[in-house]
Amino acid sequence: MQVYINGKIVPSQEAVVSVFDHGFLYGDGIYETMLVYDGVIFKLDEHLQRLYRSASLTGLTIPLDTDLLKIALYDTLLANALKDAYVRLTVSRGHGPIGLDPELCSQPTIVIMAQKSKDYPPTFYEKGIHIIIAETRRNLKEAIDPRIKSLNFLNNILAKIEAIRVNAYEAIMLNARNRLSEGTVSNIFFLKDDILCTPSVACGILDGITRGIAIDLAVREDLGVLEGEFTKEDIYAATEVFITNTSLEVMPVSKVDSTIYPVGKVTKRLHSAYKQEVGSYVARVRAEGPSLWGQER
Ligand code: PMP
Description:
By secondary structure, the chain is α+β, with helices and mostly antiparallel strands. The chain has helices at residues 22-26, 44-57, 66-79, 122-127, 154-165, 209-220, 232-236, 265-288; strands at residues 2-5, 8-11, 29-37, 40-41, 85-92, 109-116, 129-133, 170-174, 180-183, 187-192, 195-199, 224-228, 240-245, 249-256, 259-260.
């Protein structure tokens, strides 16, 4: 694998970060993960906007503008000869003496890694996955706002460990007010009384790019959508459940704790609408040119 690090693309074994990097020492940094379909990074502008928002909420100045970041992303894909890929862009505070003061670090560390995108087993989409409601609560948004997509992932990892213990794929966390928030790496949706429900951003969640698309698609499909505050009992009483994120897209859920759900019509409709959205986005970007990818640049 070829890795982009601070302006250079090098073999992975040479892509090393200082032990004094504040990303390593304190989880002080931010990131985005994106999916690449047929050479096009899906919703790149939205991901970069969110990256700059995370940067601004943490007082981190990214030394590259969006055009330079786009070039770096596509150059990394090209160096790895990847057209269908998962790409992660990490920006840490950089290296500096021990201590919390961000001013100790003069230059952020920028890393881009790309690998072939994961193929989830088709049975996941056909049958749905098992998830749990975790005991671990989501970070208070007044403490670490989940809208910051930060490197500080221990909250999510603790919930993930609970899921792994019972062989579940994902863990949904409640917030401090016992309302549903989000999964360790995903947003949650469920259908109740024919209304598509999802926790609002005010519940303390990351406003997932896929979540936003799923809401838009549902509205376009004339479904009622409710972003609000929900309890785990609401989900147990639902008729369909699914989770969303960049890699999983729209993933049906067959079991939450011990409640079973079918892979329902709405989930299937939104899953195929999402695939269509990806297809038309990729076609549009390719048609717009001049493109940033490959030798065409
Ligand atoms: N919540 C959390 C905590 C996440 O890590 C992710 C994955 N980035 C999501 C939600 C889903 O976001 P997206 O749809 O932008 O991938």
